[in-house]
Amino acid sequence: MSTDSMFVHKMWVDDELSKMITAKTVPFPMLSDGGGNVGKMYGIYDEAGGVDVRGRFLIDPDGVIQAFEVLAPPVGRNVLETVREIQAFQLVRESKGTQATPSGWRPGKQTLKPGPGLVGKVWEVWSVDKAFD
C-alpha cells in the first residue's frame, strides 16, 4: 500500500515490475492510500512528504499487531524475513503458546518450550550459533 494513485501503480507495473518478473499478473496486492489515512492510523504517514514511509505490520486473525517494522525510504524490506516471521507466529498460535521460536528459527528447526523450567536455562537447549545456520 502506498499513497500513490492506481495510475502510478499501473505505470510502475507496466514500466518497472514487468521487467523484473515473468508472471502475467502482479504477485502481490497493490493498494492505494491516497489520503494517507491508513498510514496515519499506523503512525507511518510523513506529513511533510505526503507519503507513507515503508512500514510492515503483521496482524493476527484477532486483529492484534504481532510485529511491525518501519524503515527509512532508501532501505527495502526483506520478504523472506516477513515470511519466516509469519510462519513463526502461525506455529506459536497453532501450539497455543506451548512452543516459542528462538532467534533465527525457520520451519523444521528447534523450538523452545516456554515455562518456568526454561527460565535461566535456555543455554542448556539452545545456543546463539543456531540462529545463523
From TrEMBL:
<feature type="domain" description="Peroxiredoxin C-terminal">
    <location>
        <begin position="88"/>
        <end position="114"/>
    </location>
</feature>
<keyword id="KW-0049">Antioxidant</keyword>
<dbReference type="GO" id="GO:0006979">
    <property type="term" value="P:response to oxidative stress"/>
</dbReference>
<comment type="subunit">
    <text>Homodimer; disulfide-linked, upon oxidation. 5 homodimers assemble to form a ring-like decamer.</text>
</comment>
<dbReference type="GO" id="GO:0045454">
    <property type="term" value="P:cell redox homeostasis"/>
</dbReference>
<dbReference type="GO" id="GO:0033554">
    <property type="term" value="P:cellular response to stress"/>
</dbReference>
<dbReference type="Pfam" id="PF10417">
    <property type="entry name" value="1-cysPrx_C"/>
</dbReference>
<dbReference type="GO" id="GO:0008379">
    <property type="term" value="F:thioredoxin peroxidase activity"/>
</dbReference>
<dbReference type="InterPro" id="IPR050217">
    <property type="entry name" value="Peroxiredoxin"/>
</dbReference>
<feature type="domain" description="Alkyl hydroperoxide reductase subunit C/ Thiol specific antioxidant">
    <location>
        <begin position="2"/>
        <end position="67"/>
    </location>
</feature>
<dbReference type="GO" id="GO:0042744">
    <property type="term" value="P:hydrogen peroxide catabolic process"/>
</dbReference>
<keyword id="KW-0676">Redox-active center</keyword>
<protein>
    <recommendedName>
        <fullName>Alkyl hydroperoxide reductase C</fullName>
        <ecNumber>1.11.1.26</ecNumber>
    </recommendedName>
</protein>
<keyword id="KW-0560">Oxidoreductase</keyword>
<dbReference type="InterPro" id="IPR036249">
    <property type="entry name" value="Thioredoxin-like_sf"/>
</dbReference>
<comment type="similarity">
    <text>Belongs to the peroxiredoxin family. AhpC/Prx1 subfamily.</text>
</comment>
<dbReference type="Pfam" id="PF00578">
    <property type="entry name" value="AhpC-TSA"/>
</dbReference>
<keyword id="KW-0575">Peroxidase</keyword>
<dbReference type="InterPro" id="IPR019479">
    <property type="entry name" value="Peroxiredoxin_C"/>
</dbReference>
<dbReference type="GO" id="GO:0102039">
    <property type="term" value="F:NADH-dependent peroxiredoxin activity"/>
</dbReference>
<dbReference type="GO" id="GO:0005829">
    <property type="term" value="C:cytosol"/>
</dbReference>
<dbReference type="InterPro" id="IPR000866">
    <property type="entry name" value="AhpC/TSA"/>
</dbReference>
